[in-house]
Amino acid sequence: MRMLKNVVLALVAAVIAAAPAVAEEITDVTGRKVEIALPVKRILLGEARQIHVAAALKGEHVFDTIVGWRDDLIKKDPDSYDGYRERFPAIETLPRFGYIPSGDFSLEAAIALKPDVLTLNLEARDAVEESGVIDKAAAAGIAVVYLDFRVDPARNSERSVEILGQIFGAEARAQEFIDYRRAQIAVVTDRLAKAGAIERPKVFIERSPGITGETVCCRTFGPANFGEMVEKAGGHNIGSDVITATFGDLNPEQLVVANPDHVIVTGSNWSAESDVNQFVAVGRGADPGAARERLKGLMQRPAFATLDAVKAGRVHAVWHQFYGAPYEFVPIQQFAEWFHPELFADIDPDRTFREFHEKFLPIAYRPGYFVSLSDGGE
Question: Pfam families recorded for this chain (predicted)?
Answer without folding.
Answer: Peripla_BP_2
